[in-house]
Amino acid sequence: MAEWLWLLFTGRIVLSCGLLAASALAWRLWPEKWPLRRQWMLLFTLAIAARAFVWALPPSDDVNRYLWEGRLIRSGISPYAQTADSLASMRDDAWDAMNHRDKFTVYPPLAELCFAALGGIAYAPWIYKLAFTLADLAVLPLLAALGGRTRWLALYAVNPVVVLSFAGEAHFDSLMVVSTVAAVLFAQRQRPVLAWIALGLAVQFKLVAILLVPAFWMHFEARGRRASWAFALAAALPALPFVASAPQWIRGLADFGGTTSGNGSLHFLLELVCGGKAIPSAICAVVLFVSTLWIARKVQPLGLAALWTCFAFLLCAPTVTFWYATWVLPFAVLHRSRAAWVLSALTILYYAAWQHRAQTGEWLHPIWAQAALWVPVIWFLYRDTRLTIINAPLGRTSGNRDSGK
Predict the structure, then answer these.
(1) pLDDT confidence of residue 2
(2) Which phi-psi region, left, alpha or beta, contains residue 361 (left: φ > 0; alpha: ψ -120 to 50)?
């Protein structure tokens, strides 16, 4: 049933709404008077059941790249050295089904090494679903350690974006998410070396995590900042086997960030005004840089700074996919971000591009879908931000929100 629904845009809406209703119901009826052990048993039962329900969904076509590039590494070939279409001698079923074979890969080295390790266990999509789902489930106890109440964890555990992105489509963003949440936890417990290592690993899974470096730097005092050598080590070591092909990786990142766009907000509006992508990308890069530094200096606690930094990226990014919403949801558990929950409810509209392609043959995000997504999200983000600024001096009383109470 779930597999059939996922093949149609309307079916995706129905499936997402069903999971959203289930998560809201779990939050509304959560038995907070139960003993904590029973609550955790119920929480994991719901989380595993939701993921089992979507397990049969076809994985994202990105998994073909995970499989094939991991196979390259096991064969002693750097996945950054050449584009996939220039290595036709290595073609197989995954190569045939891969998207963007004419472009250099953008995945960081540690992610590629994980693809290789998992593909060595089983050259099939299910191994990636399993690994990324386990990483996703590991977020729950980390959030609890940060003070997240089980009632709000239930809202996260059955959230449609989280469930569909990892157990359904097998996106590897859960590796970055669990590393980032672990980094915040270590930082809150004044374990700077472990915090910097976890953040370095997060960057090696998904480069966007580097935007959190200023917030971590401002969080720590002098001793914690001196421990940033651990970040440099964790971020650099996985890249050493691929140093020779680093220029091609940089080129791939530049191509992805500068020549592609879809489902954006600020970037899309600037494209309408300026035309082309170069000027909007430059303006958004400046806005993101300034926003990241401002958040690092002004916003505390660290989890709230991480939430705002991720939102700043989503608002400035030229491309925002369905599963990018998973970056903000763990911190929404801790900080009651209405904008994050609205994003998780509406980001399924990303797949309106599928319907448009089926009708016209062109991959394009309809303006109505982008407006229906971003207008409510930006409105609630404005309200969340305004309430935070009015109700508490940033960096002081807002710290109580980490407790989840």
Answers:
(1) 66
(2) left
